[in-house]
Amino acid sequence: MLVLENLTKTYRMPAGEVRALDHVNLEIGQGEFVAVCGPSGSGKTTLLMMVAAMLRPSSGTVWFEDRAIYDMAGPVRARFRAKNIGFVFQMFHLVPYLNVLENVLLAAAVVHRPDGKVQARALLQRLGLEHRIGHRPSALSAGEKQRTAIARALLNRPKLILADEPTGNLDPDNTRCVLRHLQDFQKEGGTVIVATHGPAAREFATRTIQLRDGRLA
Ligand SMILES: Nc1ncnc2c1ncn2[C@@H]1O[C@H](COP(=O)(O)OP(=O)(O)OP(=O)(O)O)[C@@H](O)[C@H]1O
Ligand SMILES: [Mg+2]
Predict the structure, then answer these.
(1) How much distance in Å is there from the Cα of 113 to the middle of ligand 2?
(2) What range defines the domain where residue 41 resides?
(3) What angle do CA 178, 83, 152 make, to 5 degrees?
(4) What is the distance between the alpha carbons of residues 111 and 52, in angstroms, rounded to a whole number?
(5) What confidence tens digit (pLDDT) does each residue in 51-72 have?
(6) From residue 158, how far is each of 5, 24, 161 by CA, in Å?
(7) Residue 41 — pLDDT band, cuts 50, 70, 90?
(8) Number of structural domains found in the chain
């Protein structure tokens, strides 16, 4: 489903260049749950952002089902991303002045979905948030915020979910809960890639890969 070919990312800084990823080659099949592990600064976020069609590589190619995603024109790539890829962030990235339902429906604003509201409510019920639908993020626990973010990532029925330290701010119970929801998505045929320092995701992963200094170890 995904092929990363000689993927390299160099950030240019006043003090010199930082090579965040260095000729990474990787294939990921549909239905895998991959944990990307490695110390801080090893390139996990950079890798996820490039797979997410949000960060252009300095060189190399990201193939998504035989399409080179950075060959697409910007607006085409944006639609492709909204349709196929869900992203879950460590800090949730919910919009503070929208309630839970409205935050989830943001995903439907990009890909036109007349059934968005019905689907969003069904997802929120499945994630145990039906009693929180009208709450603003500030009135949610950390676990509830992350489950809202997962509902938003799932709304467009993506093929791939990318999650960057999705449990970094959660206690052990909420960590397992979030990982279990990602696993449910995987068991229904979805593909999951989780970047993490922690050991919890390895338990759920079908494969663990290690990054060190921008290279696959
Ligand atoms: N926008 C940027 N500009 C310059 N350098 C960057 C930028 N983003 C990341 N880097 C550098 O690239 C390297 C990889 O960073 P990245 O954020 O991918 O690591 P990470 O594995 O996600 O780390 P963490 O576990 O702390 O989140 C680091 O050396 C970092 O300082
Ligand atoms: Mg990171």
Answers:
(1) 32
(2) 29-58+69-216
(3) 30
(4) 16
(5) 999 999 999 999 999 999 999 9
(6) 23, 24, 7
(7) very high
(8) 1
Q: Are 77 and 53 in contact (CB under 8 A)?
A: yes
Confidence band, pLDDT 50/70/90 cuts, at residue 197: confident
**2 CA distance to ligand 2 middle (Å):** 21
Both tokens of residue 39? 């110390």
Instruction: Please tell me if the CB atom of residue 40 comes closer than 6 angstroms to any atom of ligand 1.
Output: yes
- What pTM was computed for the model? 0.94
Q: What is the phi/psi pair of residue 170, to 5°?
A: -115, 155
Q: Supply the CATH number for residue 77's domain.
A: 3.40.50.300
**Residue 60: enclosing H or E segment and its boundaries?**
strand 59-64
Ligand having the closest approach to the CA of 44: 1
List the one residue out of 108, 115, 151, 113 whose CA is nearest residue 130: 151
Q: Within a 10 A sphere around the Cβ of 190, how many other Cβ atoms?
A: 21
